[in-house]
Amino acid sequence: MAQPPPTEDVFRKFSDRVVKIEVQETGSAAKASIGSGFFVSPQGHLVTNYHVIAEVVQHPDRYRAGLSQGDEEETTPVAILNVDVAHDLAIVKSETPAERYFALQPVEAPQGVRLYSLGHPLDLGLNIVEGTYNGFLKHALDERIHFTGSLNPGMSGGPAINAEGSVLGVNVATAGEQVSFLVPVKWAELLLDETLSPGFQGGPLVERVRLQILDYQERFVRELLASSPPRVKLGGFDLPTRPAPYFNCWADANREDNLRYETVDHQCATDDYIFVTDELVSGQLWFYHRLLETEELNRFQFAELYTDDFEATYHGMAGSGSEVTPFRCETGAVGEGGITLKTVLCVRRYRRLEGLYDLVFKGAVVGKPHLGLETALLASGVSFENAEALVRWYLEGFSWSE
Fold first, then answer.
1. Residue 402 has what pLDDT?
2. What DSSP letter does each residue of 51-100 carry, written as one string?
3. 131 — phi, psi (to 5°)?
4. How far apart are the C-alpha atoms of 307 and 293, rounded to whole Å?
5. Which domains can be identified in the chain, with CATH numbers?
6. Would the pTM of this model clear 0.85, i.e. be above it?
7. Fewer beta carbons below 10 Å: N end or C end of the chain?
C-alpha cells in the first residue's frame, strides 16, 4: 500500500488556495472575528462557513468582510453572494481572480483515511492539521462528518482534503479532545452550482436565511408529526421518548439515602442546530421528563416540594433582546391519557426573521398526592403553526397505565 506523502508536501501544494476571512466593525475598522475560506473557481469564488460571516449578513451596516493570504496584513473586500444557513455554508467572492483553486466534487473515502485540515487557528497564521475520516455522525438530521483531528477557532470555513487535494468537507466545529466536525463537500458543491447558475438572483441575504430556516423546520417537524413516538415508562406514566434517529436520549436517577424522595430524569434532544448570530441559534428540539416519588413526605410536604421544583426548573433559551422579543406565557390545564397537567406555554418571536418563533412548554401532573411528573418541551426556530402542532403531538404521547 502506498504511503501518504509527508504533511509538509500537502501544505506546500495546497496552502495557497486557503485564505483568512476577517470580519471588521465598520466604524473603527477593528477586527471583530476571523475564520477561513478557500478558492473554488478561477473567478475568485470562495467557500466559507455562514457563521464566519453571519454578522455581515445580519448587520451589513455595522460589519464588513475581507480576506488576506499568506503573511499579508491588509485585507481586500469580499462580497457575500449566497448562503446555506442549514449547512452553515456561504459563497463569497474576492475582487481578484484565483490562480489556483479546489474543484468541488463528491469523494468516496473509507473510514480511517488520513485527512488534512487547513485554516487559521486563533489568528496564528495558516496551519495544517492531520486527522482521520470517521464517517458520518449517527445522530444528525443532515450529514456531518466526524473528523478525528484538532480544529480550533479561526479554522472554520477552511477545507479538509485528502493527500491528492480533493476536498471531503468544510471545517465547521469541534467538541475538543480530537473530536471535530466537517460539512460534507456535496453541500458546498450544490451551493456553488446554484450561485454560478445563469438565473441566480441573490436578493437580500437575511431573507434567504429566513426562508431557509422555515424550510428546515418544516422538513423536520413534518417528519415528527407523521410519527407516533415510542414510549418510556416512568412510575405509572407512559411518556414519549426518542422520536427519530437524530435524537439522543439520556436518563439518570437520584435515590440518595438522605433524601426523603426519589427523582428519575429522562431527556431527549437533537444534536443539530442552526447558527443565526453569536447571540441566537435555531433549529433545536429538546424534551425532558422528571418523576418525583415519596413514601416519607405527607401530601402537604410533597406538594410544597413539587411546586418549588417545578418553578425552579426553568428551561430557558439564550437570545438577546435585539434578536428576539420577550417570552409571552399562558397558563392552563389539559387532560390527556387519563392524567391532568397544569401547563405553562411560552412563545417569543424573532425580530428580523418574520414567521419564526421559539417555544417553551412546561407541564406538571396534578392530583396524585405522593407522585409527580414534570415535563418540558423546547423548540427553537419554528413557525407558530408548527409550535402549536408540536405541543399537541407531544401531549398525545402521555398516558397513565396504573
1. 66
2. HHHHHHHH-TTTEEEEEE-TT--S-EEEEEEEEEGGGTEEEEEESS--SS
3. -165, -170
4. 13
5. 7-202 (2.40.10.120), 212-400 (no CATH)
6. yes
7. N
Number of Cβ within 10 Å of residue 22's Cβ equals 20
The winner for highest mean pLDDT among 181-195, 254-268, 330-344 is 181-195
Please give the Cα distance from 132 to 63 (Å, whole number): 36
| Of the candidates 371, 361, 360, 258, the residue with the CA atom closest to the CA atom of residue 305 | 371
Q: Give yes or no for residue 316 having a pLDDT over 80.
A: no
Q: What whole-number distance in Å separates Cα of residue 251 and Cα of residue 262?
A: 14
User: Distance (Å, rounded) from C-alpha 249 to C-alpha 242?
Assistant: 6
Cβ atoms 338, 400 nearer than 8 A:
yes
Mind spelling out the 3-state secondary structure of 208-270? HHHHHHHHHHHHHHHHHHCCCCCEEEECCEEEECCCCCCEEEEEEEECCCCCCCEEEEEEEEE
Q: Alpha carbon of 173 to those of 81, 109, 181, 401: distances in Å?
A: 23, 20, 5, 44
